[in-house]
Structures
1.
Amino acid sequence: MNPKHNLKQAIDSLYRHTHVNPEAYTRLVLDCVRLNDTHQAKRLQTHMDNNLFEPTTTFIHNRLLHVYANSGKLSDARNLFDKMPQRDIFTYNAMLKAYSKMGSVDDLLGLFKTIPCKDSVSYNTVIAGLGTRGCVSEALEVFVRMQKEGVEVTGYSYVSVLNACSRVLDLRRGKEVHGKVVVCGLMFSGFVCNALTDLYAKCGEVDAARWLFDRMRDKNVVSWNSMISGYLKNGLVEKCIELFSEMKLSGVKPDVVTVSNVLGAFFQMGRIGEAQKLFAEIEKKDVISWTTMIVGHVQNGKEEDSLVLFNEMLMANVKPDKFTISSVVSSCARLASLFYGQTIHGKSVHMGVEDDTLVSSALVDMYSKCGEPTEARKIFDTIHAKSTVSWNSMILGYAQNGKDLEALTLYEEMLNNGIKPDSITFVGVLSACIHEGLTERGDQYFRSMTKQHGIVPTLDHYACLINLLGRSGRVEGAFETIKGMPYKPDSLIWSTLLSVCKLNGDIEHGEMAAKQLFELEPNNAEPYITLSNMYAAKGRWKDVAAMRSVMNSNKIKKFAAFSWVELDGKVHKFVSEDRAHPESEAIYRELNRIIRKLLKAGFTPNKNLVLHDVGDDEKLESICYHSEKLALAYALMKKPEGRKTVRILKNIRVCGDCHLFMKFVSRIIGRTIILRDSNRFHHFSAGCCSCKDLW
DNA sequence: ATAGGGTTAG
């Protein structure tokens, strides 16, 4: 029947006897090895200890050690190793294996030094262990030493050392090893050739990899996978899919690794349907293929589907790991779904992965993007070994939520803790300065990047600087910055300039920025709308009309705007002037009630923010029923009582009228509103917004 | 008498 169950029963019966003959132990330990069953191995060892059984050879203990080593049970391995009366080369090699899988590099090298009679296997194990930790020079050192000491260098040695090189993309040293492989005549070994193919592919020399691949006599599934993943890593997505077709014709059966690679290729091309079809065809779906599906959906803006997939994965009894959890957490972040985010947070705690860098920073990001910087901070404070990534997530979280001074304080704290800031850190720091209007301080931070931290500013940082200068009225300075950049300005730079021009009513520079954007992104309606609104603000209706006719003749469509709210775990989506919701009538009644209340309190809709120069009544109509207002009305209607915060999400930037509207609602109706638009967070409370009216 | 070390995917 079930071999694992049989083993358990055999060991159960062992426990009913006190005297056991050595052959029985030998038989059982071999079963433990065959099934790699650490649990039964431990029970077996306990039984031997309890009965003071002292084996005459090292064999049984060595096999137990091997089971522990192979399943990463480092402490069990170490305990057994420490109390073994005699040790031979098999003992040492098994312990080396345990360290190379789990322990520190120091432990690994420390043990290696003490081994009295190292053989080829000892060397190969250490080289492999060093390689998986990215210690290439150490791995190479051991490799050289083994040659000097006359230990036999085998295919195993070459594969391990090549793997070390490819892990850190060290092609120069990899090529030296390649030379040695040729001299030794090991080019016909499949393992060695696969490792070489992988090395060249990973290091960006796809053609060299393909050359080797084409000359391989017996390509196995790993050969194909190495080449397919090489194409994918180098962005040759079509080649990757093409080779997959060739593979199917070759008669080598694709496995779950092949499919995971090809899935990645389909997702990169947005061919989601094909990815789903391919995924459905794999019989044995593992964590990685599920996670690839989840990540692929998130990358293609299908966050809800990624959560559905996550559920299906759990139903299929595949255990998620830290990669899965961090990607579903970021799915929740992008959806700003506090409900699911908290559920998955709970799951991560249960799994014990919440302290992992990947997971914890995703959690900090999730709570921040749900407008909960205080919760984010709680997570941040529990992280044991905070990495640059952890600090970055929290600094950015504060900055996104209008807690700009907290962001800057945290940055100073980061420096005091001796953590090195990186390029991302400064995006957070600079945007905090922008919103606080700290022009001088921001400028200093910008200069400190190169001077004190050796970080080359990217276009993102220049965009922050332009924002910083522009918002303090120095549009000319912002423009000079663009001219002085070591890069060609991209659309981000020009749209940043355009937005500060709008703030300053600087039509001259605004037109210049818009003109660049028209060329860089001919289908983007944003610059047309912004420029048009700038003209409208100055009453230049002729120019407004001209903009509209250009948009019409070039068939430029506004990006569909929508907002959504999450109520009791269900997402409700609205578009402008939406009548599709089943409770539409009630929603409009509620919204009109709110509008009347606000008008009495002095709210004046800002009619200049409408693109079309239509009649005033019509303007009012189209502006009053923007999607975020409908979402707000729905949320207030469904949750009228209590002081609960209303959270609304919007896929594009909030307009000035809606912003003013929300401020009024927070004061007159007395509810806190968190509105996340495509750009940042707006916390409305008592008539004020955390963005300080700059966005 | 028995035993060990290596390649591919997020």
2.
Amino acid sequence: MPFVRTELVVLCVAQGELQVLLSRRAEEPHAGKLGLPGGVLRIDEDATLEGAAQRVARERLGRELPNLHQLCAVGGAERDPRAPWALSVVYRSLVQPELAVTPGKRVQALEWRAVGGLADHGPLAFDHGELIDKAVEATRAQIEALDYPPGWVQEPFTLPELQAFSAAVLGRELDKVTFRRRVEATGQVEALQGEMRSGGAHRPAQLYRFAGC
Amino acid sequence: MPFVRTELVVLCVAQGELQVLLSRRAEEPHAGKLGLPGGVLRIDEDATLEGAAQRVARERLGRELPNLHQLCAVGGAERDPRAPWALSVVYRSLVQPELAVTPGKRVQALEWRAVGGLADHGPLAFDHGELIDKAVEATRAQIEALDYPPGWVQEPFTLPELQAFSAAVLGRELDKVTFRRRVEATGQVEALQGEMRSGGAHRPAQLYRFAGC
DNA sequence: TCAAAAGTGTTTGGGTTACACCCATGG
DNA sequence: CCATGGGTGTAACCCAAACACTTTTGA
């Protein structure tokens, strides 16, 4: 039977850009390179695949992950020199930028890196570059469809804030009018009557929260 | 390490309906029930996950499958009583209705079943019902986007034929004008000058083939 | 008073839908 | 000639994009 692992693609929006959580690998193979946090499946501890991913998150990042979606499985005989056959099940998660992650065992350091221009910092370990691309694509499709993962933006929020987050994920500007109309048409947000956010030298913004909370 | 298998969701259009290839299980667990064809990953024979799926297809169905797409991976401690932990990587494929499948080892019989009303024939083995639903959903999204798998329809074909196949996959009628315009706009089909299909008591239809063949 | 950002109304254009109509063939 | 299905033109409609404009605040 093959050597089975779980890899995590953890994304967030910070500094107006989509970022991915990477770790500097301490051990071979690919020691010194940046790679996705991951870990071996433990059939004595994990009840399900997603449970395994959450355990790996606890061990490596110090906490569980919200909005965990399975991305794909990759595997082959030549994938990992530590085993004759290696299989990885990859999960993605979109988290709040304020997520506190604490490096865990066998992780030298955790770093947020903007997904644009990742190639500038040298090659990533294994095929992790392609996995990140796939995760970004799936996440963008989700946000494009206004399918907001619960708990991603802290409530209450304003529509311009939601628009800015969405634009950061998508990597392109969004039209204000179109965005407002599309979001309001979905019916998933409701205005908080009388509550505003007065942030600067401009008109305060209406606060919203997701309906059904 | 877990027990790793590959399962195949093979779909085709026949009798104007989307059908799935199922096998009557000869052995426990779930003996006698209908289930997806599948097989165990062989790390000594298979170089990749997709290679494993193709080997399973050769052994169980007597041929390789075109348009093979990975659907998901499912796994857990309670998944299969034959092992303490079982993991399945699921693939889907859309094939021509004329595909000849010959039952292989450990498969009593292969049957095409319409995906509508599958529940009427008793429960399926494992979670194969849910896997079929996911495969149908993914296939419908692909056809909805006019992303036709190469070799799915035999060329040459007429646009009404392509429309009928698409409608069968999607499970709903399609507007003739809209369908023609959308297909022609993609530029992936080209008319065969002067070639027509005269099938009945009506005007013959223009024959097409996919561009870039 | 002004700059800046929130929020609204209007127009434009692309693409889908619906409908009417013509075309070509077999019976 | 007529029924049948292939193929085309036109108008209505929906939605997103672009633009102009008003509103409200802090400086």
